[in-house]
Write a structure and sequence with these properties.
The longest helix has 47 residues. By secondary structure, the protein is mainly alpha-helical. Helix content is 79%, strand content 0%. Helix 8 packs antiparallel against helix 9 and helix 9 packs antiparallel against helix 10.
Length: 246
């Protein structure tokens, strides 16, 4: 009897249940980091630009500040994300090497360990031993199973530091560009930049609702309120410090 036949016999599933029993992607996939990266760029650059604008500086100074904030934030996000993901990947690879060595040196012990794990989850001892024995016949499959069960990782789906860095850079830069865009198109006052940024924050919040249980309008208004509060506080501080310095 194959592993799939064993699992099918142990856990038969009604066709209607298979068709209707679906869940949200609770990890968010690529959507969550992309949207939050853009949101981070929006809030930070909007707050930076409004803070400078509160000091009654020239339009050119605001534009330069916005461009500097975009570049600095995007490169910082990319560097931090690359280092973080690379370090995590190196740790995982090192742990996989240890597990691979154990499977090569002590295959029986590892097989018994896997059977004991299934038994602890309620599988009958005889069935647990059969499943562990069949899964352990292929060394790479055995490594994948042990990695999933013991480390909670998928060896075939390790994160890429380069992809993480590029996506973080792009999403942050896109968000940070939004409040800067009206100035680049010729606006001479602050309110178009604030309005466009707040609309962007509402849109990001609404998109985040796809991976939460909240309604789109609630998530959108919440993010709009938080971003607006940050911009208002930094504008007030800019005005206060600008007056004091002046």
């Amino acid at each position: 009897m194959s592993v799939m036949e064993i699992m099918d016999a142990a856990a038969p599933t009604h066709a209607a249940h298979r068709d209707n029993h679906t869940h949200r992607d609770v990890n968010g996939g690529w959507l969550r980091p992309a949207v939050f990266g853009a949101m981070d760029g929006l809030v930070s650059n909007l707050a930076l630009m409004t803070g400078v604008a509160g000091g009654a500086v020239s339009q050119q100074t605001i534009v330069i500040t916005g461009l500097a904030g975009l570049a600095a934030g995007a490169f910082s996000m990319a560097a931090g994300e690359y280092t973080s993901v690379a370090s995590q990947r190196e740790l995982v690879v090192a742990e996989l090497d240890i597990e691979r060595a154990e499977l090569r040196k002590h295959p029986k012990d590892e097989q018994e360990e896997l059977a004991a794990l299934y038994e602890s989850r309620g599988v009958e001892p005889e069935l647990a031993r059969k499943v562990a024995e069949q899964l352990s016949r292929d060394p790479e499959q055995a490594l994948e199973i042990h990695a999933r069960e013991e480390l909670g990782i998928d060896p075939s789906d390790l994160p890429s530091p380069t992809v993480a860095a590029v996506s973080s850079f792009a999403s942050f830069a896109l968000g940070a560009l939004l409040p800067l865009l009206p100035y680049l198109l010729g606006a001479g006052v602050l309110w178009p930049a604030v309005l466009l940024a707040l609309l962007g924050l509402f849109g990001c919040g609404a998109v985040v609702a796809r991976v939460t249980a909240r309604s789109w309008w609630f998530s959108g208004l919440r993010q709009l309120a938080l971003g607006g509060a940050a911009a208002a506080v930094t504008y007030g501080l800019g005005a206060l410090f600008g007056t004091a310095v002046g």
